[in-house]
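Sync notes, pocket subgroup
Present: LS, DG
LS reminded everyone that the earlier model was apo-only. Rerun requested with molybdenum atom included. Inputs:
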Amino acid sequence: MSKNQSEWTKSTCPYCGVGCGIEAKIHTSGKLEVRGDSQHPANYGRLCSKGLALGDTVATEGRMLSPSIEGQNCSWDDALSHVASSLSSIIEQHGPDAVAFYVSGQLLTEDYYVANKLMKGFIGSGNIDTNSRLCMASAVAGHKRAFGEDIVPGNYEDIELADLVVLTGSNLAWCHPVIYQRLKAAKEKRGTKIVVIDPRETRSCEIADLHLPLFSGSDIALFNGLLAYLVKHQHINQTYIDSHTVGFEQTLTQAQRFSTITSVALETGLKTTDIETFYQWFCSTPLTTTVFSQGINQSTSGTDKANSIINCHLATGRIGLPGSTPFSITGQPNAMGGREVGGLANTLAAHLEFGNDEHFSLVKNFWKAPTLATKPGLKAIDMFDAIEKGNVKAIWVMATNPAVSLPDSDRINRILSDCPLVIVSDCVADTETLRHANVCLPAQGWSEKSGTVTNSERRISRQRRLLPTPGEGKPDWWIVSEVAKRMGFHDAFNYQTEADIFREYVAQTNIGNRHEDRSKRMLNLSGLNGMTNEAYNDLSPIQWPVNSTTGESERLFSDGQFSTPDGKAKFITVDHQPPANAISERYGLILNTGRIRDQWHTMTRTGLSSILNTHDNEPMLEIHPFNASDRGIRDGQLVKVSSNISTQVFRASVTRHVPVGQCFAPIHWSQTHCSGGKTDALIPAITDPISGQPELKATPVMVQPMFVKTSLQICRSSPFSQRQLSQFCAEYWVKQKVSGGYVYQLQFFNETDEVYATLLDSFVGDEDAIIQGGQPAQRRAVVFQQLKPTMAFSLCNIDSELRQPDIAQLLASHFTHQDIHAFLADSLSTRSPIICTCKQVTQSDIENLIAENPSIDTQTISELTLAGTGCGSCASDIEQCLLRACRSELSMVQKAG
Ligand SMILES: Nc1nc2c(c(=O)[nH]1)N[C@H]1C(S)=C(S)[C@@H](COP(=O)(O)OP(=O)(O)OC[C@H]3O[C@@H](n4cnc5c(=O)[nH]c(N)nc54)[C@H](O)[C@@H]3O)O[C@H]1N2
Ligand SMILES: Nc1nc2c(c(=O)[nH]1)N[C@H]1C(S)=C(S)[C@@H](COP(=O)(O)OP(=O)(O)OC[C@H]3O[C@@H](n4cnc5c(=O)[nH]c(N)nc54)[C@H](O)[C@@H]3O)O[C@H]1N2
Ligand code: SF4
Ligand SMILES: [Mo]
């Protein structure tokens, strides 16, 4: 049932691929309250900080409210007709391959299905690709090569049932927090051994028994070495290899290039003892689950990396068994759904493939498609190259922000600005991609949409409509279908509801697909055939395949039967290749990139939550103390990061968590939130030759300190426009959402007095009044408009080391007289970092408690402050506070001694 007596509606979190079930309730105030769904098998009631803050991101502020053409609002009918006629005329003049769709794992399965059907079936081109190309393409290609089909064999329970969990290229603690919590709980219960393979010491290492900080891109050396070791120490499962696989001998011969631990150590930079420990644990633990993610996929050898892992699991027969499986964990909420329906340019539909005549006629007949595409379309990077060359003349971007998230993003911006027709469907009003759009189409956001998503463990869940749509936003499937009808494909796209589309998709998974014939597709939803609208609305989370006779399947390949013509899995012969961008002397450091705990991708939604912006509120470049001191870089200083294609500004965070020779930057900031920190501008678009997935984890960069003189903080209730901001002539600015408004940090090369004079000039208009305070090295002012305080700023000479006040307090308190007075008199409290985002507990709250009671433990801190009682991911930060207090007490004792 979608609703229970207390009006809680069940739906699914729109962020990561864990696919947590939520329950939501709308209060009379209009506020959306969100809690974990205790019955959902992905999370059993747990949520992470992003899931818990969902209610905070459904504000109508910043939403796109109306369709527009060339910046002018218009009716839906005009917008849809314009899109349809423009696409049709380009196709007529230049052929179907002159148009392209770039879509996203954040669409619902129903949206994805109709977009794929329109492009491949009715426009007749393969040119639909998805941002999953940047995310899962290498895992998909690895699965297809080994298993004959893109299948994730295991499920989340396997992570709890395993005795050894290997996390490789995955920062589970921050990117799949609820799975991390499940793993942590399992470890506490059964003592699971955990190995983290990652060049960085991530938060996931906190529960690791062994961390292997290998050189970037050296995973194949490690796993080929493991395969050779398994054979040498007789830990392979020969019966399994003989009965269920092909190609072992050849793969082993290649892997034996790493037959000694020393050869593995040389290529990976790991200690021989650590390698030996890992290998021994793998050998002696039948219940081993290997979780892999972007540190594997986003690489020029990503597909081979995936197969090097799968090879070790095949050699030991550890596939699809409880607690024992390779497990590619998906990133986006519906990355899996997109892979199912055929959203990648190289798949036809529903695991039916190009280059297979039988599949071609099955799809053609099923869709009654007049011009079904006969060959794969362009993969993401190639698609943008083709626009640059003029071969593709129109692109429709849906639910992704390529101007920020594709590598070489400055170039992507240029390509989009030169492309004759850019159509963008998004739910927010301003993204870098939207700034290039000729046609903007307002989509419904998460809380307004209805449909299905599939999570990492193949579990299909319903997203349900919770709130009314602001403005004229429409479901993505509706927008695509209306355009299709206007292009002349009325009958094929005449859907009334999302349930109609889901039923059709279910039926497509059945065509030519008998369950008893094992070489057919495992993606089969025959058990859901002919489902009624009511059953669709009430659909409970269900794992595919859903067989009409045997029901759902928790695990696949348990019987050693694969989706290949002979039913056998394939060993894939792979060899270690260093990342395409081997380090160059001139640059000096390798840039690794990824995610932080509380932000989602390009921040179009998490950037709206004041709560989520308290954890890390600036683009930080993590750099090792050795490399920082070599370059004269202090912690917290601004730095210039240059690759061979761009230069970006970040704030340095000096930490031993990144290895010497590497630095790490988050991917979230873009020009809508910051003047620098745009990581993908630095990364050249070099791809894996098989999967087309770009290398995003190893770019040579040069890092230099910047010497700013003046720092300015401004708070105001509404955001500055781009034009207003540019008037400040700051070397760097960053915007942060806070309760009641926005805080801007700006940095200048100019002297404080010069900046102050310019500011006064620009703010004292006819109606403005300014009250000033502070000392010469630290100026403060509150700006009034029509006698109401609206904005405050605090200016500081960087070298004076004066403290910055918590300027956001003024907004939160609506500029009370008391706070204004304290601010101007320099007695407003300073900012203390937030430790617990969910419960908004600051570091000083915790430190004060420790000062009062030095023998306090983490549990009592949690009980007294509630820190760590939300999503639980700050537990280690609380421990750090205790550790720091302990250290300083110790040093005091030592000094006294
Ligand atoms: N908070 C948050 N969570 C998210 C997202 C988000 O934006 N924010 N996005 C979601 C999406 S779409 C995705 S795809 C997932 C990604 O989830 P993850 O893949 O876990 O995240 P990343 O931080 O991209 O990269 C994982 C790790 O790979 C390591 N790595 C880099 N190079 C190598 C290498 O050569 N070998 C190995 N073994 N490791 C390496 C990096 O240091 C990094 O810690 O997260 C999902 N969850
Ligand atoms: N350097 C580097 N780059 C990376 C990565 C990395 O690790 N390193 N990771 C890559 C990966 S794995 C990924 S998945 C990508 C993610 O990159 P993107 O997909 O570009 O990131 P998002 O910010 O999630 O963009 C989603 C857009 O869709 C909008 N949106 C949200 N919901 C809907 C909806 O229902 N309908 C419509 N029409 N629009 C909607 C949002 O407002 C937003 O503008 O980034 C990739 N880029
Ligand atoms: S782990 Fe967090 S972001 Fe991922 S689905 Fe669950 S609540 Fe959402
Ligand atoms: Mo992703």
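DG: Residues 875-896 form the longest helix (22 residues).
LS: The chain has a mean pLDDT of 92.
Action: DG to write up.
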